[in-house]
Design brief:
The chain is α+β, with helices and mostly antiparallel strands and 161 residues long. The chain is built from four helices and eight strands; from the N terminus they run αββααβββαβββ. Strands 1, 2, 3, 4, 5, 6, 7 and 8 form an eight-stranded mixed sheet that branches. This is PhzF family phenazine biosynthesis protein.
Length: 161
């Protein structure tokens, strides 16, 4: 995990519809495979109001080698927060639930004493989900466990081949 460069911030934030002054302090580039930009935003209304320019975001992320941008509110005292993942570089304009990015955020927050989080996602797409993560920081680094709940909307049987 590292701090983003000025170039990364300068390309991604405007594509998200954010100015340099909009995000809360603490943006990070984190990886559970392909790197993504973790972007804190001050409050839920600002998160809900985001309307990214997906073509511009994809171009920025492709140029920077990023999977996308995981924009999140700060956790409450109970570790509850909301997030949206925009990843047009991998064909996902917005994900309804993303465990890898939540794990990255949990690892980051563990270094600040927040060891359990519950992240609301998917609301903007009409498919609410909650991803949970627990993390601890030890001598080797962060250890993260991710889970969540889901409601089965339908079942599809695939033919055997």
């Amino acid at each position: 995990m590292r701090r983003p460069t000025a170039r990364e911030i300068g390309l991604v934030l405007p594509a998200l519809g954010l100015g340099h002054e909009t995000p809360a302090p603490g943006a990070r580039v984190a990886s559970a495979g392909r790197p993504r930009l973790l972007v804190p935003i001050a409050a839920r209304p600002a998160l809900d109001a985001l309307v990214p320019d997906f073509d511009r975001l994809r171009a920025a992320c492709d140029e920077l080698g990023l999977l996308g941008a995981y924009v999140h509110t700060p956790p409450t005292g109970e570790g509850h927060l909301a997030a949206r993942l925009f990843a047009p570089s991998i064909g996902v304009p917005e994900d309804i639930a993303n465990a890898n990015s939540t794990a990255c955020l949990a690892a980051h927050l563990a270094g600040h004493g927040v060891t359990e989080i519950a992240v609301d996602m998917g609301d903007a797409l009409g498919a609410p989900s909650t991803i949970t993560a627990t993390a601890r920081q030890d001598a080797v680094g962060p250890a993260v466990r991710v889970g969540g709940t889901a409601a089965v909307g339908r079942t599809v049987a695939l033919p055997r081949t």
